[in-house]
Amino acid sequence: MKKWIVRGLVAVVVLSVVIVVAIVLSLDSGIKKGVEFAGPKLAQVDVRLNSVSLSILSGSAKLEGLVVGNPEGYKTPSAISLGLASVSLSPGSLFSDKVVIKSINIDSPEITYETNLKQSNLGKILANLEAMAGPRDKKKEPSAPAEGGKKLQVDEITLSGGKIHVSITALQGKTLAVPLPTIHITGLGQGPEGITGAELAKIILTEIEKAAAKASSGSISDLGKQALGLGSDATKGTTDALNKATKGIGNLFKK
């Protein structure tokens, strides 16, 4: 009798371990597939994620090799490239309607700010995200997340040690690199309605665009000269054109 009890307990333990492993594996692959499926729909650009590792017990996750492509017509290889993002979350919330993320730390992001003098690549992606997220009226009841989606709460986001690659489309992909200031965002989705994935992406990209614009302003004149093919013997007319183009780019950064 005792043997059967022991065997039964062993079987239950083994089955439990298998189930937990299966859940973890499915969540890992599910996150990767979700990013690569939902990302292009939201941002209207190619989105790739190299790998995801998730530990339910510790409430931690790591995302490696996230690359957000550029809209059509831009010449640089990508808009955003993240080598490593570390996430800390409340494990129990994974199985609830609202996932509580304690922190997201993004180390050494590579951001490309490319402008064609009318719009930037980041501005175009942000416009796509805004169209998908839509305006939120706080007086109205929050809409339910998309089917299969989750409401989110994000307590803290930090991007540090990054670089901005500034480019004008006419330069066919040539860039100048400047440091990206540390970006710190707190208190997202604290209410019961939370925020959606599209809203989170919109908030992060808005802050990245602001920081990129501010940090890149000093590189505009040099890039403008290269774009217009100026040398030491540039004529006054060409110089005036440069000044006009540079002013136009500066105005884009203020938007």
Can you describe what's shown?
The protein is built from 5 helices and 9 strands. Helix 4 crosses helix 5. It is an alpha+beta fold and 255 residues long. Strands 1, 2, 3, 4, 5, 6, 7, 8 and 9 form a 9-stranded mixed beta sheet that branches. It has one domain (2-133, 149-216).
Low-confidence region ranges: 13-26, 138-148, 230-242, 248-255
Q: Structural class of the helix and strand makeup?
A: alpha+beta
The profile of the biggest β sheet is: 9 strands, mixed
The helix count comes to 5
The percent of residues in helical segments reads 40-55%
Distance between the termini: 77 Å
Q: Which series of helices and strands comes N to C?
A: HEEEEEHEEEEHHH
Please summarize what this structure is.
The protein has about 260 residues and is of the alpha+beta class. It has helices at about 1-45, 120-135, 195-215, 220-225, 235-255, and strands at about 45-55, 60-70, 80-90, 100-105, 110-115, 150-160, 160-170, 175-180, 185-190.
